[in-house]
Amino acid sequence: GKALCPAATGISHHISPYGDIEPCPIIQFAKETIHDERGIKETLVQSKFLEDFRTLAQDTTRGCIVLERPDLLKELAERHGARDTTQRLSA
To answer: What PANTHER family does UniProt report for this protein, alphabetically (predicted)?
Structure first.
């Protein structure tokens, strides 16, 4: 079935206080920021990291990928070179 996670369906994202575009508030990895010269809409639409996140979450779980398959989320972040956007650098 289809994922129920709002970030997996593409209807939700999180913008950190520093402008990082994250899949959701608890997934603090980002590849792009709102400061990208493309503009926010184009950045969201064209982000390969967010697209691959949605596909992975939809194909993996109907719930939260952080709770069910954090190993796959880690692999995705590493593959895309996504930054740890926590201030503790503990994502």
So the answer is: RADICAL SAM SUPERFAMILY PROTEIN
For 21-85, give the DSSP string. EESBTTB-EESEETT-TT-HHHHHHH-HHHHHHHHHHHHH-SS-HHHH-HHHHHHHHHHHT-EE-
Tens of pLDDT, residue by residue over 63-76, are: 889 999 999 999 99
Please give the structure tokens belonging to residue 13. 């994202």
**Cβ atoms of residues 6 and 62 within 8 Å:** no
Q: What is the pTM of this model?
A: 0.86
Q: What percent of the chain has pLDDT over 90?
A: 58
Interatomic CA distance for residues 85 and 15, integer angstroms: 11
Name the CA radius of gyration of the chain, rounded: 12
